[in-house]
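[step 3/7] fold_predict: job queued, chain A
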Amino acid sequence: MEYNVTLIRGDGTGPELVEATRRVLEAAAATNGSSFKWDVVEAGVDIMETAGTPLPENVLESVRKNKVALKGPITTPIGTGFRSVNVALRKELDLYACIRPCKSYVGVRSKYEKIDLVIVRENTEDLYAGVEYDLGTPEAKQIIAMAGGKIRDDAAISIKPISVTGTRRIVKAAFDYAVENGRKKVTAVCKANIMKYTDGLFYRVAREVAEEYKSHGIEYDEWLVDAMCMQLVQKPENYDILVMPNLYGDILSDLCAGLVGGLGVAPGANIGDDCALFEATHGSAPKYKGQNKVNPTALILSGLLMLKYLKEDSAAAKLEKAVSDVIAEGKSVTYDMKPDRNDPTAVGTAEMADAIIAKL
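[step 4/7] structure written:
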């Protein structure tokens, strides 16, 4: 079968990571008699000057048409400039469920072994909804006045919406993932002891959804986000699927990536009712642009999630074995996966992809 897929090249090291991943995915799909027809589009800082925006409309149109997209990393300026293209894509396409598996692979250096966690993060609301008002704006002043002395006069304001609709569908996504993948436990993570209305609503709705899945035998529990951080450092083996609002999910997905060796092996999927976008958890690393140096594993594993989404389970299984075999051998891997980061035997991005293709 041939699949139409939008290919967003990204910026920084994005294009070279995308090219390596594209070749690997084509090889994996071919083992199952399938192929891809790529619709290549551009987004990010590299096209700002010519396009006038980091997210041209043709990118959104392509994803809406093809329903599936693979995206390279895109730079997000810190504290100034345009808002995150990554967040904008999720909002515009209503990709409300961010799925981030964190799994140990033999050969990846870590203080932990046999980690197999999945973060399910709500993608469209919470503090990432982008409802912000700068210092001194009429809106900020109005909110400060309404707060009855709880907010200082010289504050900027960010609003945290948590809805029944958003919570219900993300918790259902977590339980559906558990059912489809043979998982045993879903843990809701919040800070409802302090944010009693917003995070309290998240827990309340999560409990209702958990009741609907009781017949599947999936355990449900709850942890406050600060205590969950300690639990993950001390006893990560006690947890399976963690579901949470946007901000906590962003933070804990990086924590869990640290348990398995870092962002270089952390894939991600953003899934909505109509379409899905797959991307690595890490950033664009512009200082390494064009050096054929960065680790392609995270984006390749994101492509593996895409294969599973397309129900190409056989190809996905073969790809995961090929990736894990290459990492375990430790020969054809990038510098960051060597015991000594200055090891002259480290290979480049393209060469690690070649090694995975050879295994396939």
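[step 5/7] annotate
The chain has three domains: 1-103+267-360, 111-125+162-259, 126-161.
The mean pLDDT is 94.
exit 0
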